[in-house]
Amino acid sequence: MGHNLETRSLLDELRSFDKNGGIFDLGHPLLNRMAESFVKAAGIGAVQAVSREAYFTAFEGGDSTAIPPEIPSSRKKPHHFSELRGETNRKSVEALVKGTGKESLQWGLAAGMYSGITYGLKEARGVHDWKNSAVAGAITGAALALTFDDSSHEQIVHGAITGAALSTAANLLTGIF
Which residues have CB under 8 Å from 164's CB, separation 6+? Predict the structure, then answer.
């Protein structure tokens, strides 16, 4: 494998990310970790949003009542990008891009924020444990709830509790499986 940038393939470049410490070098490990987590999760969020919309568009065929009975009734509401069935293709594409961008931002925000908080708590407390995960999950869950269109006090508290519970469980279960 050559080190000359002109002769290296894209695959060689991607493999070097792990060896060189990541995608970004912003001058501080906290910033690097947050930026890398944000970018990776935002990409995953975009793929998830577009895949979900493609599935519902193909499955429903434009009819939001066509969801099968085995899916719980709470999921039978129109899906997130309901405005995709606009008057023109341009409006549909605009709605897809807007919705995908918002979901990407939410996924990236959650990952970058969680990663940064856990890193900061580890550095401040000198230990990485379930308490760091619980605090980071609660703060991230509350912040994520604030990104929803009509977030209420109850949704913010619910997001904080859910975030704390999920991240604590993930921390406690690490290494078991």
Answer: 134, 135, 137, 138, 141
**Structure-block tokens of residue 96:** 């897809």
Q: For the whole prediction, is pTM greater than 0.70?
A: no
Residue type, 127: V
The token pair at 100 is 């995908």
Contacts of 4 (CB under 8 A, 6+ apart): none
CA distances 124 to 28, 81, 117, 130, 155, Å, are 15, 41, 10, 15, 30
User: Which amino acid, 8?
Assistant: R
- Rounded Cα distance between 173 and 176, Å, is 5
Q: What is the pLDDT of residues 64-116, one digit of tens each?
A: 444 555 444 444 444 455 555 555 666 777 888 888 888 898 999 899 999 99
Return the residue matching tokens 């499986």.
177
